[in-house]
Amino acid sequence: MYKFKRAVALTVCLMLALVTLLSGCGSGNEDQAGKGATSVSTAEAKTTETTAETTASPNAKEVALSFYLVGTPQKDTEDVSAQLSKLTKEKINATVKLNIIDWGSYDQKMSLMIASENYYDICFTSSWTNNFAQNAAKDAYAPLDELLAKYGQKTLSLSRKEVWDAVKINGKTYASPIFQQNAQGYGISVQAPLVEKYGLDWKNLKGWDDPALDAWFAKIKQSEPDKICFGYQTTYDPFIQCSVQFGLEPISDVMAPGAINTGSSDIKVINQYDTQEFKDYVKRMHDWYDKGYIRKDAATLKDQTADQKVAKFAALQATPDVDSLDWSSLGITSPGIMASHTGGLVKSYEKKFSPTYLSNARATCALLAISKTSENPDRAMQFIELLNTDPKIYNTCAFGREGKDYTVNQNGSIHVDINSGYNTAGPWLFGYMGNAYVPDTSTSAEGAAIGTSGLPKFHEAWIKVNNEAKTSPLLGFVFDTAPVKTEIANCKTVVETIGYSLSSGSVDPEKYLPQFIEKLKTAGSESIIAEEQKQIDAWLKAKK
Amino acid sequence: MEKSAKPGYKSLLPNIAIHSVFLIYCLLVILPIIMVVIISFTDEGFLNIAGYRFIPGKMNLNAYIYIFTGNVTVLNAYAVTMLVTAAGTILNLIISSLLSYPLSRAEVKYRSRISFFVMFPLLFSGGMVPWYILISKYLHLSDNLLALIVPYAVSSVYVLIMRNFFRDLPDAIVEAARIDGSGEFNTFIAVILPLSKPIIATVGLFVGIFFWNDWYTCSLFISENKLFTLQYLLQIIMNQIAFLQGNDMLRGTLDNLPSESARMAACVLTVAPILFLYPFLQRYIVKGLTLGAVKT
User: Fold this and answer.
1) Would you call B253 and A426 a contact, using CB atoms and an 8 Å cutoff?
2) DSSP code at position A402
3) Mean confidence (pLDDT) of chain A
4) Which residues on A lie below 8 Å from B259 (Cβ)?
5) Is A111 within 8 Å of A344 (Cβ atoms)?
6) What is the ipTM of this complex?
7) What is this structure's pTM?
């Protein structure tokens, strides 16, 4: 007993010592960073007051902004940051440091930064990484309403009202949407050389059930043993990933049951797998599978890049917002490219089967938020406004340094040097894409679209489509998955095991479709749907 | 006597059976590695058309050229990884051995209590967020090479393994040294350490491999490209491919990516040094593993 007591006393002493040590460190740190400790912040407040009095300009003091975004880390990010800072210093007296975090680590890195209240100013946030709704609910971001009214007039005018509604949590705006190709149409992409060779009137295709498509596939199947008629891939499943084209918008996870009918006015949650649409779809896919239009191992194949690169597919599921017909009506040649393998470009035509639609997930797929820990939210907002209005600043972020990372072509498109030290995955990460340069064909499918018509016309086309797209009645609704987490996970497993086999046509729907629906029920599809309906009803009520 | 005259004659059949089983097993282990090496030298276009082949139709060095000249800074990452591995392993060995030796000595007064402090974190830990906060906010090690070394400077498991090894060394040796007038520190350096080569090599190799393979710490604390480790770079390449394929928003940028052969080349580059190191350390490892068992 005595020994035990001594051990306890020793432990407590050590712990106390440790705590004192750590807290000592902590306050020292806060002093250093100039936040938290009251004495310092009041001192700082005084100095800002005095400077405000003497110069009467809010941007008198130079500040440094740190900007976190997802992407592939680039070799020359530092140099690009320096170039960018030169531009921003002139405009808003602030320097900007870009921090590009790898695709795989971004989500976790940001959640740790937020949990530990680390300092940063601006970050990329969205529905698919660094989850916007969760972080905003956790109070990680600064509310932007006042800042937007003060510094972001142009930013406010870029996106439509429905999108701004989608970034409101409890009535406050917590992020600034990046205006880009948010709305999606759904349809088919067909390989141009095969269209010409075997005659397909792609312009008049009505849908996936069109007999002309089947006839075309049959011809290819017969005379081109190397080709695969329909390039099914699980990551691009025509029903599970693209159910909007069947008039069904999934509510939480695309794989989990629970969707609303985009056509009807009252919002009723249904199981998208237990519908006539899914029945017809799997029937057709099975028919295609039996006829040999789809790879035999399609259901289990995760990666088909190799097939795609050598243009093995005659047709693919596509999600164009502006399709080849729209482009040609604008006098622009088809921008579609099916494969750009070293062997040369293989062109494609894209045809929408359903009108463009702005789903809830897509509306929040690219946003910028200002951290609650930011000391300079004013300046951060001004920088976001610059990303949306100043083409030079924006394109420096997106494409790097002119002459080094890219060169401007005669028609206004740019040629990107793939091996340069700064080549981010896309301009959609930063700001208003209407100001973006468009890379030419050697690196991007969109480059061809410019043709000789020039940038403005190209941008005009997709901007118009985006602003006119039908919007989801659920914009702004965030489903809290916590009450049905297990059910969702269970259902996803069922979809993974049977769902993809059905959806790729690999198994007979007569036998397996009822089984699939039954298994989903056992996995808890009904309680997911009930929970979703409950939350949506509550949300609708609060909205009114 | 027949046995010694014709050794193995009678056991020929079982021998063949046993050897062939192990040969097959060896092939199963070695073939994938050979495959990876071959793919890394195969032309990307050929890979797309013909798939993986043991006899490559078209070979070139494009994948390696891409990795060494491309956007990613592989050579630099090599240097970082080697530095971290060397410094981390040495630091870990120094601290572990200096901690575990006293714990193995009966005359150290509070050794069971200190042992408790060593054991405790094995069972309970503060978790991810406090760990992150400690390193980034209090120790200020973000974007610092120390962030890759300091968190793993000592590991409870290896301390316990080492302690058990030291405990098995005969007490008489230490006593003899003491009688000869050797101080405690000198005894440790001049007597104990030379006797402990097997355990030092074994733990050293495990720790070294851990440091060599660690990408996770780098992903959390390092955002400066100059300080990326090799494994993290490999992780970036793999993640990027996986991510872009699953994301329709990014289609069309796929061409910019290092593809299949480059992935394999990166793999070869990461495994090779460890592969070459193994044969040299292997004899110690075998000794280290069997020593304790045989002695008792």
Assistant:
1) yes
2) B
3) 82
4) 305
5) no
6) 0.73
7) 0.79
